[in-house]
Amino acid sequence: MSDFVIVGAGVIGMMLARELMQAGATVSLVDRSGCAQESTWAGGGIVSPLYPWRYADAVTQLATWSQSSYLHLSQDLLEETGCDSELRQKGMYMVDVEDETDALNWAAAFNRPMSKVDAAHLYTREANFCSGYGGALWMPEVSSIRNPRLGKALRASLDKSPNVVLYEHHEVQRLLLDNDKVHGVRTAQGDITGGKTIITAGAWSGELLKPLNINLPIEPVKGQMMIFKTPIGTVNRVILMAGRYVIPRNDGRVLVGSTLEREGFDKNTTQDAYQSLHQTALQIIPALAGCEVEHHWAGLRPGSPEGVPFIGDVPGVDGLAVNAGQYRNGLVLAPASTRLHADMLLGRQPVVDPLAYQLEGRI
């Protein structure tokens, strides 16, 4: 029996397990497939909300804390495991933004580096960006991370700890409930028990709570993406335009994303989305017309009201907590979401006020 049973080994589950084990707690981390195989793997890895001024302050608080922590986290993981998460601190351009004034006012209010730059600034740095634009909004401190490699590094970190036991390919059949107290989970391979059970299963988190007659308002929202094999330097920074984006990797590859589709738990890709994403890519970077599309895939985001995650105990059920609902910002919010939750679980001073994320009054 461990101190904590965490159900869901995506970026939230793994980072939470790491926070708890570093504090000396024992953790059983359970996943129906492998670590970081769902939305953690499928996302783009931009370490910023898209159009961050359009989110609730509760999201901004978590994003701000997380953004400043990724440099140290990626360095720590590299030293611990030898796995390079490929954090790129190159900034982000946002082109053709309709609510520029709101954006600049938000940046001033929250002390976030953002400025309006001219065409020379934009095209000097991104010569392959489509022609005809007079400038952009520029956020120089925005980073991107290669999320599959981040997942690999986190898993390797947990593998090295005697305080963590990984139960991959263990699908949870039900929560173990006795006298309104949860004390673990039942899987086909057997029961896994612990002092507290924490649901970090992303889009599937609500499904695990339904048998307890708990309605957690998290829904799957499909996102389709594609990746181009391109020469290094074709794109150098994240570019956001008309709600979609391109993201460069260190090896020259360029991601384009993404769709927003509410179709339940369907993860199939579609030809319509392929054509739409391909067209978007060429609109932003015409030079991609001659490049090979290596892969087209889909993942399921954990959609939540206003994108504000649920972090904390489940009311009325002893021994059960949730950390889910980061929606489009799972990677962005993960360090702060998990540090905050670890603080709450271990009785430490929280890094941010937890009130906005608690389940009480929201379910």
- Please give the count of helices: 9
The radius of gyration is: 20 Å
CATH topology of the largest domain: FAD/NAD(P)-binding domain
Query: What is the count of distinct domains?
Result: 2
Give a count of the beta strands, DSSP E runs of length 2 or more: 16
The run of helices and strands is EHEHHEHEHEHEEEEHEEEEHEEEH
The helical percent reads 25-40%
Provide the β-strand percentage band.
25-35%
End-to-end Cα distance, whole Å, is 30 Å
Shape: globular
- Flag low-confidence runs: none
**The CATH homology group name of the largest domain:** FAD/NAD(P)-binding domain
Rounded mean pLDDT score: 96
**CATH C-level of the largest domain:** Alpha Beta
What structural class should be given to the helix and strand makeup?
alpha/beta
CATH-scheme architecture of the largest domain: 3-Layer(bba) Sandwich
| Main sheet specs | 8 strands, mixed
Protein name: Glycine oxidase
Organism: Neptunomonas antarctica
Pathway: Cofactor biosynthesis; thiamine diphosphate biosynthesis
Keywords: Oxidoreductase, Thiamine biosynthesis
List the helices and strands and how they pair.
Layout: E1 2-7, H1 11-22, E2 27-30, H2 39-42, H3 57-81, E3 92-95, H4 100-109, E4 115-118, H5 119-125, E5 135-139, H6 147-159, E6 164-167, E7 172-178, E8 181-187, E9 190-199, H7 205-209, E10 219-229, E11 238-241, E12 244-248, E13 254-257, H8 271-284, E14 292-303, E15 310-313, E16 320-324, H9 330-346
Parallel strand pairs: 1-2, 1-9, 2-6, 3-11, 9-16
Antiparallel strand pairs: 3-5, 4-5, 7-8, 8-9, 10-13, 10-14, 11-12, 12-13, 15-16
Helix pairs in contact: 1-6, 1-9, 3-6, 3-9
